[in-house]
Design brief:
globular; about 45% helix; metal-binding; about 5% strand; Peroxidase, domain 2; mainly alpha; two-stranded antiparallel ribbon
Length: about 250
């Protein structure tokens, strides 16, 4: 999993994997070789949403863990914080995920934080212009300038929306108000009429967002890899590798 953790969209942002380790250790003691790390991760994602005030859904189980980890594959699959709406639509289309799926699944940014490293280009050099992204609320941009000064610590984090510990539709309200943290978020409102329409709907109808999010998570969870897998004993290492080796 190390390759995925070090992917450009994840590095220094994904944390607390010790929780996954604890769950895996407990499961291996109770029912060894039955529950994969991949299943634990997706169930933990569901539970994080629920505990933050979001909807619940039945998670389909039976995934296998990878035998290897590829940072290159992760970089190619994970949406970049610099992505625009066109590239995001194309990326999701490769996996037969719709525009509604794209906008709904982006709503996972209703909770959590992201690094200043991911937005300094928006603040100081959008598209190589040497100027900030014009698609930012002026007061919000001032707040981000203070959080992420030019030449400052890129690992400082800020909330992805105004309520980063509550799973709600505030994320979409922020986009409508031009207060999206990441370029890949704000572009859903400013970059394409098709995604803008869905953002507007979710900003005024939290129930519609929750319903679409559940459907998107189920569809994404149904995606299958053609590579052989296994059920790892330790989530940090494939079963045939030495314990000190991490993926």
């Amino acid at each position: 999993m190390l390759g995925e953790k070090l992917a450009l969209s994840n590095i220094n942002s994904l944390r607390d994997f010790e929780v996954i380790d604890e769950v895996k250790e407990a499961l291996e003691q109770r029912c060894p070789g039955v529950v994969s790390c991949a299943d634990i991760v997706i169930m933990a994602a569901r539970d994080a949403v629920v505990l933050s005030g979001g909807p619940s859904w039945e998670v389909k189980l039976g995934r296998k863990d990878s035998l290897t980890a590829s940072q290159e594959d992760s970089n190619n699959i994970m949406p970049s914080p610099r992505a625009n709406a066109t590239s995001l639509i194309k990326l999701f289309h490769q996996f037969n995920l719709s525009i509604t799926d794209l906008v709904a699944l982006s709503g996972s940014h209703s909770i959590g934080e992201a690094r200043c490293f991911s937005i300094v280009f928006r603040l100081y050099n959008q598209s190589g212009t040497g100027r900030p992204d014009p698609n930012m609320n002026p007061e919000y941009r001032k707040k981000l300038d203070e959080l992420c000064p030019k030449g400052g610590d890129g690992n400082v984090t800020g909330g992805l929306d105004a309520t980063p510990v509550v799973f709600d539709n505030q994320y979409y309200k922020d986009l409508v108000q031009m207060k999206g943290f990441l370029n890949s978020d704000q572009t859903l409102y400013c970059g394409d009429a098709r995604t803008r329409k869905v953002v507007k709907k979710f900003s005024s109808d939290q129930g519609a967002f929750f319903s679409a999010f559940i459907k998107g998570m189920v569809r994404m969870g149904d995606l299958q890899s053609d590579k052989r897998g296994e059920i790892r004993k330790n989530c940090r290492v494939a079963n045939d590798l030495p314990p000190h080796t991490t993926l």
